[in-house]
Amino acid sequence: MTCLYIAKHKIVIIVNDKTISVYRKQDDVIILLTTHTALDDTLITTMTVSHDGHYVAIGYQDGSIMVWHMHDMINHPHVKYFAKTHGSIKKLTFNHHYLLLSQSQYGLFWNTATPTATPGAAVLWDIYGHELHHFGNSIVDSIMSPFGSVIVLINASIRFKQHATHPGLSRWDKSIQYQQHFLNDNTCDDVTLTQLY
After folding, report:
1. Taking CA atoms, which of 22, 103, 110, 149 is between 20 and 30 Å from 37?
2. Cβ neighbours of residue 77 under 8 Å, at least 6 residues apart?
3. Measured distance CA(81)–CA(66) in Å, rounded
């Protein structure tokens, strides 16, 4: 269970695997405003709040993302914005311009039984659930700067190297690449680990 207090709106949000409960603190009394229950076949996997507390985003195991505006949550609790991607949502990050970066996971990047070159995806959304940019399906992890000008991605790749004369020496090769995307000019450069700090 996760509990979050947003002082600006005097809101308390309590999240468990299936349910989001939203309470408002009024004087010394806590009042239930609304609840939201996930569908039977999915679970809530992550939650984040924008820097100013205006928006809450919730990620689900089935790849759904729900965004609630605090004003809507208080006055119109049934007004929610939804987005959908593939894989379980593992991380959500708002920047100061209300862009939302989602990181999903399809499977483990390296599993000797079933290696995969598509461990997850990173997608940039607006607060209404419109996809702005899909960074690909080979993303292991991602992060966005607070002001949203830079997104750093960890991109994974694998390939099977067949040994020409000794099949028993054939193997899977894996590699990790760090990339940064500048949202202003839409360029992408390789970065080193020291540039991530």
Report:
1. 103
2. 22, 33, 34
3. 6
Q: What is the CATH number of the domain that holds 59?
A: 2.130.10.10
Task: For residue range 20-53, list pLDDT tens digits in order.
Answer: 888 888 888 888 888 888 877 889 999 998 988 8
Asked if pLDDT for residue 12 goes beyond 80, the answer is yes
The answer to whether 153 and 122 are in contact (CB under 8 A) is: yes
Contact of 12 with 19, CB cutoff 8 Å: no
DSSP code, position 186: T
**8 HSE (CA, 13 A, CB side):** 9
- In three-state secondary structure terms, 193 is helix
pLDDT, one tens digit per residue, over 88-113 is 999 999 998 889 999 998 766 555 55
**Domain of 95?**
42-196
Q: Which residues of 164-176 are buried (b: 16+ CB within 10 A; e: fewer)?
A: eeeeeeeeeeeee
